[in-house]
Amino acid sequence: MSIIDLLNSSRTAIFLDGAMGTQLGQMGLEMGGQNTITNPDAVLTVHKRYVAAGVDLLITNTLTMNRTNIESHNVAVDVREVNLAGVRLAKEAAAGACYVLGDMGSTGKMLKPYGTLPEEDALAAFKEQAAILAEGGVDGIIVETMFDLREAVCAVRAIREACDLPVIASIAFNTSDNQGRTVMGDTAKRCAEGLTEAGATVVGANCGGVDPLEMAQLVAMMREATDLPIIAQANAGKGRMVDGDLVFDLAPADFANGMQECLRAGARLIGGCCGTSPAHIQAAVELIGRD
Fold first, then answer.
1. Residue 217: CB partners within 8 Å, gap ≥ 6?
2. Best CA proximity match to 215, nearest among 276, 151, 163, 125
3. Tens digits of per-residue pLDDT, 239-248?
4. How far, in Å, CA of 205 to CA of 210, rounded?
5. CB-based contact 100:87 (threshold 8 Å)
6. Lowest mean pLDDT: which of 59-68, 180-189, 238-247, 265-274?
7. Which of 71, 86, 242, 279 is deepest in the core (most CB within 10 A)?
8. Long-range contacts made by residues 187-191, C-beta under 8 angstroms, separation at least 24?
9. At what angle do helices 40-53 and 79-94 cross, to 10 degrees?
């Protein structure tokens, strides 16, 4: 069975994992995809905990590992090596129990005319990463934590040029008010329409400045704008500063209740983002069920 078969099945909910970065941070490590090279055992441990929590889709630790982001942030890794390592660790943890999604995120730069990055350069960076992830053997690719619809569309198109894998495309919204808005002003409706037109297999929302209940509102808006399956990956509440640290402290049970509301609003794929843990995902699996 493939991811497409899973999407076409009678399953009410399909579960993804939760945060990797904040889990690594709790281990005393710097967050980021470079850990697939520098601290592979830690990454593997987190992956295995999510598999044990009951996920259907496991995401590689490669979110910002495109060439543009690596070079602009002076991350001392090779783009090919780090992405292949990310796939290898996730596949080892999955061990055939779940599918593996190759994770792709922003270039870390704004596209022209708001920034300095030409769209063709972003397309090339995304296409390169997608090809490497596909070569590594992922079952699909997820584009997530995108704040600019234009960049997200660029990523989806690049993946479509690089391979024929299913593509999940997720946007980070700043608010659920005023039709749901990204920091760039894109509405939830426009994001759903734009990603659908670009050729995504699944569209939705993750991270951003909303809690799980507000994400349910965004899901409802996107549900009205597309016939595609919708993904919702909320943070463990809204982040707040505590002694100089950004803390996400929504309890697993409350997170699960919020994700159930996302499901009722029209989501099909459920997962977690910043601050979530295997306990949060397990709570959602137990509450919602795997029927």
1. 176, 180, 265
2. 276
3. 777 777 777 8
4. 10
5. yes
6. 238-247
7. 86
8. 187/221, 188/218, 188/221, 188/222, 188/225, 189/221, 189/222, 189/224, 189/225, 190/149, 190/225, 191/149, 191/152, 191/222
9. 40
Taking the chain, what is the end-to-end CA distance rounded to the nearest angstrom? Answer: 17
* φ, ψ of residue 272 in degrees (nearest 5): -125, 160
Please give the Cα distance from 272 to 279 (Å, whole number): 11
List, for residues 111-160, the tens digit of each pLDDT value.
999 999 999 999 999 999 999 999 999 999 999 999 999 999 999 999 99
Could you tell me the pTM of the whole model? 0.96
Name 34's Cβ contacts closer than 8 Å, sequence gap at least 6: 75, 76, 77, 82
Task: Determine the Cα–Cα distance for residues 233 and 57; give it in Å rounded to an integer.
Answer: 12
Return all residues near 58 (Cβ < 8 A) that are at least 6 apart: 16, 17, 47, 50, 51, 90, 93, 94, 98, 99, 100, 101
Retrieve residue 269's tokens. 């794929």
Q: In what order do the strands lie in the sheet with 269-272?
A: 14-15, 269-272, 230-234, 202-206, 167-171, 140-146, 99-104, 57-59
- Compute how many other C-beta atoms are within 10 angstroms of the C-beta atom of residue 249: 12
pLDDT band at 290 (very low <50, low <70, confident <90, very high): confident
Q: List domains and CATH numbers for the chain.
A: 12-288 (3.20.20.330)
Q: Residue 177's pLDDT is what?
A: 95
Kindly give the interhelix angle for 149-162 and 119-136, rounded to the nearest 10 degrees.
50
Residue 79 CB neighbours (<10 A): 20
